[in-house]
Amino acid sequence: MRESKEWRTEGQMESNPLKIAQSEIGNTESPAGSNRTPYGDWYGLDGQPWCMMFVQWCFSQAGHPLPYKTASCSQLLQWYQKYQPERVSKEPRANDIVIYNFGHTGIVESATAETITAIEGNTSPSNKGSQDNGGGVYRRVRKKVLADAYIRPFDNYEEETMTGEEIFNALNSYLKTQPVPAWAKEEWEEAVKLGITDGKEPMALIPRYQAAIMSKRTREDAK
Q1: Which end of the chain is more exposed for a tag (fewer CB within 10 A), N or C?
Q2: What is the CA radius of gyration of the chain?
Q3: Is 77 left (phi over 0), alpha (psi -120 to 50) or beta?
Q4: Among 107, 130, 104, which residue's Cα sits nearest to residue 117?
Q5: What are the tens digits of pLDDT across the range 110-138?
Q6: Residues linked to residue 140 through DSSP beta bridges, in sequence order
Q7: Pairwise CA distance, residues 62 & 39, whole Å
Q8: How far apart are CA 65 and CA 60, in angstroms?
């Protein structure tokens, strides 16, 4: 497991749960397959499945501890449905807690008409491996139909202004998970065969100067 951010000082406190979750991406159980993490240690159930413990930890670290402490996804949803039903939504928003229908959870980062992107604990980095006991913190894109509900524990968080680099990196990370549009696939494959591009990461962003240089080199090769 890489160095954990678990032992924060008050001066280092980040007030946005999503930002905290993002900073933990790449953390894994130590040893592998043990369910042992700083999140479980903090909660007091180290060695047990920890996706909800990770969510609880993120909100606590942000200074917004959840009003109901549980390591169970279904129990958290049931508590909110009973005591704070106005905070249960069918539409996601950043910092919401997503409750999946396969016993898993995460913190919503963004959404499209059909998918949600969330930072999740105790999952796998891809569709290979366990999705609800995968051993790490990863950014995952899943279909909305997999979500039972979204919990919005608080209305406002102190937002940090993203730098241009952060915006570029966040957008690039999202686009890399998307497929090449059907209408562009044929020409994309032809461009790869012609050596115009190496075929890697077809949805990654490129600055205009790179696109211009690629066009210039293609024109020169055609002469």
Answers
A1: C
A2: 20
A3: alpha
A4: 107
A5: 999 999 999 999 999 999 999 999 999 99
A6: 118
A7: 14
A8: 4
Euclidean distance between CA atoms 15 and 98, whole angstroms = 19
Q: Are 25 and 139 in contact (CB under 8 A)?
A: yes
For the beta sheet containing 136-143, the strands, ordered from the edge strand earlier in sequence to the opposite edge, are: 88-89, 147-151, 97-100, 105-111, 115-123, 136-143
pLDDT for the residue 159: 53
d(CA 143, CA 178): 12
What tokens were used for 110? 């963004």
Q: Under DSSP, is residue 183 helix (H, G, I), strand (E, B) or coil?
A: helix
Whose tokens are 């109901």? That residue is 68
User: Can you give the pLDDT at residue 62?
Assistant: 92
Ordered DSSP codes for 101-114:
TTS-EEEEEEE-SS
pLDDT given at position 222: 65
How close are the terminal C-alpha atoms of the chain, in Å? Answer: 53
Q: What share of the chain is helix, strand, coil (3-state, %, to 5)?
A: 35, 15, 45
Give pLDDT < 50 ranges for the chain: 1-12
The one-letter amino acid at 102:
F
Enclosing H/E stretch for 115: strand 115-123
* 83 in Cβ contact with 77 (< 8 Å): no
